[in-house]
Structure formats: C-alpha cells, structure tokens
Design goal:
Number of strands of chain A: 27
Number of helices of chain B: 2
Order of helices and strands of chain B: HH
Strand content of chain B: under 5%
CATH class of one domain in chain A: Alpha Beta
Number of helices of chain A: 23
Structural class of chain A: alpha+beta
Largest sheet of chain B: none
Helix content of chain A: 40-55%
CATH topology of one domain in chain A: Rossmann fold
Distance between the termini of chain B: 63 Å
Distance between the termini of chain A: 26 Å
Strand order of the largest sheet of chain A: 15-27-26-25-16-23-24
Shape of chain A: elongated
Structural class of chain B: mainly alpha
Largest interface: A-B, 25 and 27 residues
Oligomer: heterodimer
C-alpha cells in the first residue's frame, strides 16, 4: 500500500482541516486514514507518538481498517500537527471526510455478529431441551415432553426470527425484483419449520423442528459472517480510497490569500496553486510553462512539457516548476469524471453477474416447490388427512433446505482468498474469484503494469563514478522522474545548493565554482538521439555526458505471460504509448497481439468487443486511463501502485511488485470453483437420499438436524482441502 | 419435576447472562479490530517511572 502515497499532495501542508474535525461537547474527534501500519510496533509507535502531542486525550489505531481516531478537549490541538506527526513517523496519512466517515461496514459486521451470537445461544439451549426428548422420549411422560416443546418454542421462535433478519431482508429485496436468490428457500424453510413445530406443539404432537430451525440460522450465519469478513478485508482499502477522493486543493483568492478547499468545491475560473509533485484535481490552463507527469491520463511514461496557456488534465502531476492553474471545469466535469462514468457503466454490467449459489438457487427453488406440491397431493390421494399431508410436504422443504448453498461457497472462498492474500493478492469480493475462474483472454496495460512504471538508468556502468555523483547532487533537488531515477541509481549522498531551474531546459548549479548543467541535449551542447529518454550532464566546458533511461519490464512479466498461455488463456496488450516502445516491450514479454496509441475510451471499447465476441476477459491495468476497461472487463486486477480509481474499479489488487500472483490467482480460482461444485454435489447427494424418506414421512426431527449439521461439516472440511495443498 | 424446573431456569438465566455480556462486547466495539487485538498483546507496557 506504500506506493499509494504517490497520489497524495503532501504540499497541501498549510491546509485548513477544521472541516474534517467533528466537534461535540466533550471535545473534538478527528479520523485519519493511515497507510503502512502492519504490526504491534506500528500501533505502539503511532499511538504513543500522537498521544505525546500536547492536549491529545486519546489515540486509537484500528489495524484492520487503518483508521486512527484521535480525540482532544476543546481546541487544544491543531489537526495539522497530528497529520504531520504521523507522517514524520514514516506513515502516510490523510484525513477522513467527516461526511463519508459513516461506517457501514462496521455496523454490518456488528449486526451479523449479534445475529450469529443470538442464534448460537438459541441452538445450544434448544438442542438441550429437544435432544432430551429425542434420546429420552420413551421415559418421558407426555406432559413433560410438551412442557419441553413449549420452552423450546419460547426460546427458539423469537431468537430464530431475530437472527434470521439478514436472510429475510435479502429474500425480500430479491422477491421485490421478481427474482429468487438462495435466501428465498432459506427464509421459507426457517419460517415453515417454526410454524410447523408450533402447530405440532399446540396439538401435543411429537414432530417439532425448533432445534433444526435455530441450527439452520446459526450455520448459515457462519457462512454469511465469513463472507462479510472477506469483503471487509477489502473494505479497508476501499475506505482509504474514499479518504483519498476528498483531495484538497489550494485556491488563490483575489486578495492573494491561499485557502484550502476540497476538490469538489472548485469552480471554473478559480486559480489553483500547484507545487511540484502535486496532482491537479480539475482540468485547467496554466499561467506558465512547466513539465507534467500525465501517465495516469494517457499511460505515457515520459513527462511532457506544457507551454504557458496549455491545458493540464485532472489527474496529471506537476513535476516541473510550481504553477498557477486557471480551472476550466468543475471536478465532476473533468476528464476524471468521464472515466468515473465509464466506471459506473462497468459496475452495472458486473452487477448482472449471477453468483454460482444464486444460479443454483434459481434451478432449485422451482424443483423443490413442485416436489412439495406433488408430495402433498400424493398423500391426499392416498387418503391421508390434510394435516399429515401438509406436515410431510413441509418436512421435505425443511430437509432439502440448501444449507450448502449458504455455507459451501463462502467456506471455499474464505479459504481461497486467505491463501491468495498470503501470496500477495487482495481479493475484493467472493464472486470475483468465480469470475476469474472463467476467463479465456487476459488483456494487459503496458506502463506500470507489465513495466515497473518508473524510468531506470540504463547505462550506469558506462558513466564514471565522479560524474554520476556530481550529476546526482543536482538531480536530488528535483522531482522530475528522470532526475529521481538518476538520484536513485547513485544512492544516498549530498544535494547541491543554489540549484536554478530553467524551464524546458534543465537544472543548473555551481559546484566548487564550476557551473554544472543537467538537462536536455541542446542545452548541454549535445545533439539528441531520437526515441530515447535521456538526460545530459555537463560540468564547465567538459564534454557532455549522456544518461539513458528506460522503463524496465517487470522481472517476472514474461514468465507470468507464458504461464497464462500454457493455461489456455490468450494474452493481449493495449497501451497508450507510442508504437516503438510498445513493439519493443511486446517482443521482450512475448506478446503477439498488441495495440499502441490507444486512448482510454478505445481501451474500454476493446474490452467490450471481446465480451461481444463471447470472450471472458481479465483486464490488468494501473492507470486512470485503464479504469474504464477495468470496470467493463469480466474480472480485473490492478497493481498496488495503481491510481485510486483503478484500484477501486478492479476486483483484485496486487500487494507487491510481483506479477506471478496473477497466475496463482487463476489456479486457485479454478480449484475453488471445482471445490464449490463438489460441495454442491455433496449437498445434493445428501438431499437426494433424504427426499424419499421425508416424502414417505419417515424423517424424524433428529435425522433432519443431523443431516443439516453433517452436510455443513462435510462441506466445510471439503473447503479446507484448498488450504492444505501447498 | 421441581428439580427440572430449577435446572432449566438456572441454565436459561446463565445462558442469557452470557448472551447479554457478549452483545454488550460487540456493541462496545471489541470485535471491530481482531487483527489489531491480536497484535496489541505484543506491545510492551510503558515501564513505571518513579
């Protein structure tokens, strides 16, 4: 996550953060998203560091979500000092927008856990009562048995109805849309078994299912909570993204004062200060020439020079001298917002995907309903009373209740995603794994995805050490990507003082009274060599020295692509870069099919075309220009260094610099799919044995309960096989 | 029979008491950060300074 820091405007330092502080009578509360905290050490360091600030009364870091909550009394503390302290400790920090802090995930998790706990209590207590009847029924007189059933009813009915709310709500939502999902038969089974049991108790009968109803809710809630934990792990990242979207900008007022505003408050005509390293939040024109890194917008790796009056698109980072930008659009009308609309379109296609369990439910609900009706009519024709016929029909509904549909899938997916997490891949939802198992084409972006995304010095061994050190002294003062690459290659060392920046040319400084220049070829008195990223360095009148840079391919890219091909997945590359570097990289990586000079909309269109041809495409990309394609693809992966919007759009995020986890993810997703289908088969086998018994009225409540627990156990054990394989 | 009534009443009240405590713990946010809770045990207490 460390690389996310790229997109945070650090220079918004003198910001007014008061709108992020929540005031109450007891004091002020301030919430910060913290990146990079992983262990006990980080917790202790951050919490004690922040508490050491004069006036802070409490600081608590939630390691699962990365949220640091700080409180103080009155106005004793400036929120800025807290941000600065966390950053000084070596962690990136950004304030949460008070309006978006509303924590849906926390609330949902607590609610599910409450339901789970209540259902667990009910199951144990009711089983204690009813098992006494099942095992000691012969020694028990009818009055005691009936008392036990009434007690079971008193506990199990309210508790099961309370704990089953998640299923009822989901079933109701689905029925309103005139669809069925797996919660429809589950809700029906719970309600019917409670009703049937109450009816039996009133009639002094012996067939009650109070324990089965509570157990059903309990087992299914385990599955539901596992599914929540899975989504919650990704939610931490998503919440950070919400925090990042409240990007601040510095607006220059008429009287020359600078005020800090949220990006969405910027109006056309506003003048925005952009320091070196700062990202433009809206589109606008510049009052002076500068260089900008526009890789997020076009995917192009080399920084571009923008002349005075030129247009800077939102998402670009200024890497040259600081400028004032005249905003020409609101944040929602900027290029970024166009991409956001593409994202939305993609989200809609994705919502059309029906999860495996729901697909099974759609086939299963009509089948079971028809079966129940047939059994009812069968018993009526055979001359049984209405009561007996209904009882037998409902027993079939209960015994066939798709416990496996509720537990089989999340059990497998939590094991699979846990394993992928260890291998460096964050999976944001369970159905992403289902979709990944189906892919037959993989589409890759070039810059930042197959390549490292940062230029690297190529000809270091040709350059004398003293010249490298002298050039690095100047390079260390600059934010320009090539200068940074040069500085990184030279390692740590001193930075030159009194460096002058000549826009469009380079940097100049006097070291030991000799004027030294680092910049483009013409300025350093050399002739440029085409098609290369280069810097020239000249000390005094010595001959200029050439530094060549290139965006290197990731070391495991070729291996990863070969592995995908061997698994029957076609590979394609789409890039906004020029043809020459694209062809070069395609040759290195072993890609036969590629397109260069593609803009964001064409990328999305290509992915859409693949879908229209019946392909299921995996999209891997990092730039803002990939976000639309990521959202439209059948399933998508973004590297951890990707833009916020791309991480948000992707189904999975790589946690490290390696690409091989993509192959592992495909393998694990395919294995998980096999296990899920096996689980369905196991559950179906159970049901098929139970249905004839139930329809003949031979299934006792004890068998019903044992079936349910037994099938859940087998399904869970089967899922765990995925964790065992190494 | 009285014995059974007593035992059932006792079991139910014990169970309910545990349930109430658990619900309170969930409400107090003790289950919101399981990862953090697992790590926090490793943090050294600050040494008592005289």
């Amino acid at each position: 996550m460390g690389s996310l820091t790229l997109s945070i405007p650090k220079s918004g330092a003198a910001a007014d953060l008061s709108r992020y502080v929540r005031k109450s009578e007891s004091g002020s509360a301030f919430e910060i998203a913290v990146w990079g905290a992983r262990c006990a050490n980080c917790i202790a360091k951050i919490e004690s560091g922040v508490k050491a600030i004069e006036g802070v009364s409490s600081a608590r870091l939630n390691l699962s979500t990365g949220k640091l909550a700080v409180e103080w009394r009155g106005d004793a503390v400036a929120p800025q000092s807290i941000l600065q302290r966390v950053r000084a400790l070596g962690y990136e920090a950004q304030p949460y927008d008070a309006a978006t802090t509303l924590n849906e995930g926390e609330r949902e998790g607590r609610f599910l856990l409450r339901c789970l706990v209540v259902a667990g209590f009910g199951t144990i207590f009711v089983m204690g009562l009813t098992d006494a009847v099942w095992y000691g029924g012969e020694d028990m007189d009818a009055a005691t048995r009936n008392l036990f059933f009434w007690l079971a009813a008193a506990v199990s009915i309210p508790i099961t109805l309370y704990a089953s709310q998640p299923f009822f709500r989901s079933a109701a939502r689905s029925l309103i849309k005139r669809q069925t999902n797996m919660d429809v038969p589950i809700s029906a089974a719970i309600v019917l078994s409670l009703a049937l049991s109450l009816y039996q108790t009133i009639l002094h009968g012996t067939q009650t299912y109070f324990d089965a109803a509570a157990m059903l809710a309990f087992l299914l809630l385990i599955g539901r909570y596992l599914d929540f934990l899975l989504r919650d792990r990704a939610r931490g990242a998503a919440q950070h993204l919400v925090a990042m979207q409240s990007v601040l900008a510095r607006r220059l007022r008429e009287n020359g004062h600078v005020e800090t505003v949220a990006a969405r408050e910027i109006n056309p005509g506003d003048r925005i200060l952009l320091a070196s390293g700062e990202r433009a939040a809206v589109d606008g024109t510049l009052d002076a020439a500068t260089d900008a890194d526009v890789s997020l917008v076009t995917g192009e790796s080399a920084p571009v020079s923008i002349a005075r009056g030129g247009v800077l698109r939102a998402g670009s980072i200024v890497v040259g001298r600081p400028v004032v930008m005249l905003a020409s659009a609101r944040a929602e009308d900027s290029l970024v917002a166009d991409l956001a609309r593409l994202l939305e379109a993609g989200q809609q296609t994705r919502n059309r995907y029906v999860r495996l369990a729901d697909r099974a439910a759609r086939a299963y609900v009509p089948f079971v309903t028809i079966l129940a009706v047939l059994i009812f009519t069968g018993w009526m024709i055979a001359g049984a009373s209405i009561a007996v016929s209904i009882t037998n029909a409902i027993t079939v509904l209960i015994i066939t209740c798709p416990c496996a549909l509720g537990l089989a899938v999340p059990a497998v997916q939590i094991v699979a995603t846990g394993r992928l997490f260890d291998h460096g891949m964050l999976v944001k939802s369970g159905d992403a794994l289902e979709r990944l198992a189906e892919i037959d084409v993989a589409v890759f972006d070039k810059t930042g995805t197959l390549t490292i995304g940062m230029p690297e010095l190529l000809n270091r061994k040709d350059i004398p050490r003293d010249i490298l050190d002298a050039a690095a002294q100047i390079a260390r003062t600059s934010n320009h990507p090539l200068a940074r690459a040069l500085a990184a290659s030279a390692g740590e060392g001193p930075a030159a003082s009194g460096v002058r920046e000549i826009s469009g040319s380079g940097l100049e400084a006097d070291i030991a009274d000799v004027p030294q220049r680092l910049g483009n070829a013409a300025w350093c008195g050399a002739s440029a060599i085409a098609h290369a990223s280069e810097l020239w360095f000249r000390a005094g009148h010595a001959p200029p020295v050439r530094f060549v840079f290139s965006d290197a391919i990731r070391p495991d890219a070729a291996e990863m692509l070969a592995a995908l091909k061997s698994r029957g997945i076609a590979v394609e590359m789409l890039t906004g870069d020029r043809e020459a570097p694209a062809a070069d990289l395609a040759a290195q990586a072993g890609i036969e099919s590629w397109h260069s000079g593609i803009d964001p909309k064409e990328k999305a269109a290509r992915v859409e075309a693949l879908r229209a041809q019946g392909h299921r495409a995996l999209m891997v990309g990092d730039g803002l220009n990939d976000a639309g394609a990521l959202a439209l693809a059948h399933v998508s992966i973004a590297p951890g260094s990707a833009a916020d919007a791309s991480q948000l759009a992707a189904d999975m995020v790589l946690r490290g610099a390696q690409l091989m986890p993509i192959v592992e993810a495909v393998d694990i997703a395919r294995k998980a799919r096999v296990l899920v289908l096996q689980n369905f088969a196991l559950a179906a086998a159970y049901n098929i044995t139970a249905i004839p018994l139930a329809s003949l009225g031979l299934v006792s409540p004890l068998i019903a309960a044992a079936t349910m627990a037994g099938s859940s156990l087998i399904v869970t054990l089967n899922a765990l096989r995925l964790a065992g394989r190494r | 029979m009285n014995g059974i009534a007593l035992i059932i009443a006792a079991a139910l009240s014990f169970g309910l008491a545990a349930l109430v405590v658990l619900l309170w713990m969930i409400g107090a946010g003790q289950y919101d950060d399981l990862k953090g809770a697992a790590e926090r045990i490793l943090i050294e207490d600050p040494e008592d300074k005289p």
